[in-house]
Design brief:
It is a single chain. The chain is of the alpha+beta class and 265 residues long. Helix content is 45%, strand content 14%. It has twelve helices and five strands. A five-stranded antiparallel beta sheet has the order 1-5-4-3-2. A hairpin with a 2-residue loop joins strand 4 and strand 5. Helix 1 crosses helix 2 and helix 3 packs across helix 5. The radius of gyration is 21 Å and the shape is globular.
């Protein structure tokens, strides 16, 4: 998506030897947005990080993020985050800044035969407290995006699509995130390791305890019913605590399947 930082859709289409119309259609089918929309969102999310993490002036940040004018900078930030750059700078220390904006909305096409509403109901039935929050019509979960926490929201949009709302600190790798959502809606697990742990223990209370004990806390998401990332293999493999209670023994039985990532290449 960085190709559009210095160019436009026409130039990108020419580089790929396709028409602009075909380029837009490909992007819409894959991520539910046009190349220009993704490029604007990429610049806006980069600017948001600079507003949060640096003391650069708003003017410097606008031009550093690739906006042609302060008017354009303000217009795009309001459209995406529902706040001006100055307003975002003032609330940068808020614990809920991950979801303080409206998120990036994408229309995600689903495979033929996929019943989005039925799948959302299934996900609601098996939701892990803290990691997932779901109703029969909306599913939310925390995600790890290259080491940074994020949140996705999925709801039914139409017979052949779902509405995905993405709350992430950056949108690099967005196409892979959308693909995972499509596979999730088709019936696959979000993460194979997480699915293995689900299969290894019995009872939702055990999974809730595991998340509370080993999952990485993510603050500011209480209004969404979310609080943690699902624990990684390394977190579970390094468990130093003795297992004595009945519930804890179930977690212990799952641990022999957990192997930390190999240090060899």
């Amino acid at each position: 998506m960085g190709a559009l930082d210095e160019g436009n859709e026409a130039e990108l289409a020419a580089r790929l030897a396709v028409s602009e119309r075909h380029l837009r259609r490909m992007f819409h089918e894959q991520v539910g947005a046009t190349p220009d929309q993704l490029a604007r969102s990429r610049r806006a999310h980069f600017a948001r990080r600079l507003l949060d993490d640096t003391d650069l002036s708003v003017t410097d940040i606008g031009f550093a993020a690739g906006f042609g004018s302060l008017r354009q900078f303000n217009r795009v930030m309001v459209a995406i985050f529902r706040a001006t750059p100055v307003e975002l700078r003032k609330r940068r220390r808020r614990a809920d800044r991950l979801v303080a904006d409206g998120g990036l909305a994408l229309r995600v096409p689903v495979a033929d035969g996929t019943n989005v509403e039925r799948r959302l109901a299934q996900l609601a039935h098996t939701a892990i407290a803290g990691v997932e929050s779901a109703t029969p019509t909306r599913y939310r979960r925390t995600i790890d995006l290259d080491g940074d926490p994020g949140v996705i929201e999925i709801s039914s949009a139409a017979a052949d699509a779902a509405l995905l709302m993405v709350h992430v600190p950056h949108i690099e790798g967005l196409i892979h995130l959308v693909s995972r959502v499509q596979r999730l809606l088709a019936g696959d697990p979000w993460d194979p390791f997480e699915d293995d742990i689900r299969s290894a223990v019995s009872g939702s209370d055990v999974l809730d305890d595991l998340v509370a004990a080993y999952g990485k806390p993510v603050g500011g998401l209480e209004q969404f019913g979310l609080s943690h990332l699902f624990p990684t293999p390394t977190m579970l493999a390094a468990d130093p605590i003795g297992r004595t209670t009945s519930r804890s023994r179930q977690l212990h039985l799952a641990r022999p399947q957990v192997q930390p990532p190999s240090m060899h290449h």
